[in-house]
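[agent] plan:
  1. take the single chain provided in the ticket
  2. run structure prediction with default settings
  3. attach structure tokens to the ticket
  4. add a short note for the reviewer (M.T.)
[agent] executing step 1
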Amino acid sequence: MSSFDKYERKGAYHWDATLAAGRFEYNPRLAARYTVALRLLEEHVDLSASQGVDIGCGDGVLLEYLRKRGASTVGIDFEKECLNLYGKYSYDPCPVVQGDVYNLPLSNRCFDFVTMLDVIEHFSEPERALQQARSLLKRGGVLVLTTPFGPDEDGSYHDEEHHEEEYRPEGLQSLLSSVFDTVEVNGYIPSWIDSLYKDDWTVRPVMKGIRGLFKAISYHGFNPYVEFGVGSPETHHDQLVGVAVRD
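[agent] step 2 finished; step 3 output follows
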């Protein structure tokens, strides 16, 4: 896995676009990543009575959402700087460990859930990483992961510098099924919603207003990326979400 220097350059950028953001700074596209994952987790476990691990926790935004729902969660990340940022932003931080996904310093079969949000694409040995994640889960425990839909039609990756691999739906399904028996893959961030939010607003003032409205309603609790966004991977989405259960 290549070194990830975004936290040194940008600080706690996930917090600044979600939990610590005002209405005009709020990023509904990024926020959807966390909301979609949380909803899928809640379909399988009672978070208020669950223990989990967030692998690749970064600056800890998902840890904070999980803490607020009563889950007891441990965060793991390779980069020390992001863990330091989490400690500064959260007033009641979850335990975090600087560690390697291939040698997790945690007990096996002790956890109800594992999350890996936009992490699997950074691993040079993704199957080995998933085996480590599976080893943490109790029987019936669930893994939820997200990853960019890729590569593009021309074969390019979303992040050529840091991504070791990107996945189409069938590739992610195959990867998860190599480790887990029960697997489901869906898409989120549909392209038609993305076209409203990500267009070139500098030359289209009317559309700039639409984006402002999009941000405002999302900030107050109705995020179109979430409410209209999760569906069959056969239709075009910019992101994938996988759910795998340890039988």
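[agent] step 4 note for reviewer: The radius of gyration is 17 Å.
[agent] ticket updated
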